[in-house]
Amino acid sequence: MELAAIDLDETSTMELVNAASVIAAELARRTPPESAAACMQLAETLARAGDMNEAALAGLVGVVDSGREVQKWGFPSTQAWLRNRLGMRDARARERLALARQRPRLTQLAARWAAGDLPTGHAATIATAVNRLHDTDCAAAEEVLLGMVDQGFCAGKVAAFGKRIREVITERDDSDPEPAEAKRGYERSWIQATRSLDGGRYIKGWLNAEDAAIWDGTLGPLARPAGPDDNRDLPERTAAALASVLSGGHKATKVTLICDLDTLTGGTTPARLPDGTTIPAAQARRIAFNAGISPLLLGVGGHPLYLGRTQRFATPAQRRVLEALNPTCAVQGCQVPGTLCEIDHVYGWALGAPTDIDQLTLCCGWHNRYKHTHPHRIHITRNQDGRYLYRLHPPDTAAVHTINVSGRPPPWAQAA
């Protein structure tokens, strides 16, 4: 590997990132030295460099987050982008997002972090601790927590003290330190749940018009008085209705097992659950013998046959088939469970697509709306199991031709 002198004043950010990537790739390729003492010294130096890289990453993520760029690429949130494109676990994605959002307020922290004088673990702990504080309290808390770092306290101790700071401020103000709700705007729904000392939770939030309609349609019927002797007020009945929905008590519990007729009649072909988990044939037969059996007729290639187009909305039977085929949202990388998704007409009801089982799939609410407003950024394919897969394309990508399983546009699209 050849190294060339770099004029930092004349080098763009993109060129620096590319150079750092090349150096990181070379380091990863090399075998560590045999000397443990040398490796210890190198590891400490490399860790400080990694902290500075994390500081630079936080700056980039902050610009992406404030500019709402990820929504243009089909991601519902910056955290979802960090999970799917940067491969972060949920906890790490939340941590990196807190760092990016709090970095402009934590000027001392940002300067020390960028200089390699503050480990990323301590920086993330402090950013999380001040996340819900007003600017004045944030500055005071930053001073105190950085002082603890200088005294040699570990990140866990700093986190515990940061929690105590929030409790003291809450007691002082006798109110929630959350910034005014109006700053959030009214475009996106939000819910805040705060744990009480006895293990309960205080809940407050805002639902936009679309989500409020779903709330009313789901909880409204369940929140009605149970009879003349029901002396609960509406808030109490609504809480009970929400608990019923969350626990699944508003609908009959069901387990879907997918298997061939041959399996039920003594064959050895294993069955599977909707999430792909395989079940031995003998165990599948035992489950079937102790449960009701709902047949699902499959055509050539394992594709569900048509159940007819008699109405605009899918039937419960069709939804059960779709949940069996689609363990998650149809969008590649989206992990919203299929049981929580909406039923989507793959090629659009308004374009003439029928409500037939092989023209439907499951899509989470956010991506369903995204598909409707950005149809040219969705590429549709279908695998051998009959499951549709939506792939999102960048904002500047030209219109993409959607295909069905045969590779040709559907008949109604040709007619249009």
Please describe what this structure looks like.
- Residues 49-324 form the DUF222 domain.
- This is DUF222 domain-containing protein.
- The chain is mostly helical and 416 residues long.
- Helices cover 46% and strands 8% of the residues.
- It has five domains: 1-30; 31-173, no CATH class; 212-220 and 233-252, no CATH class; 254-295, no CATH class; 309-415, no CATH class.
- It contains 16 helices and eight strands.
- α5 (90-102) packs across α7 (120-129), α7 runs parallel beside α9 and α8 packs antiparallel against α9.
- The chain is globular.
- The model is unreliable at 399-409 and 411-416 (pLDDT under 50).
Sum up the overall morphology in one term: globular
Number of domains: 5
Question: Uncertain segments of ≥5 residues (pLDDT<50)?
Answer: 399-409, 411-416
Cα Rg: 27 Å
DSSP strand content = 5-15%
**Biggest sheet, spatial arrangement of strands:** 1-2
The DSSP helix count reads 16
Task: Report the end-to-end length measured between terminal Cα atoms.
Answer: 58 Å
Order of helices and strands: HHHHHHHHHEEHHHEEHHEEHEEH
How would you state the average pLDDT, rounded? 77
- Secondary structural class: mainly alpha
The residue fraction in helices comes out at 40-55%
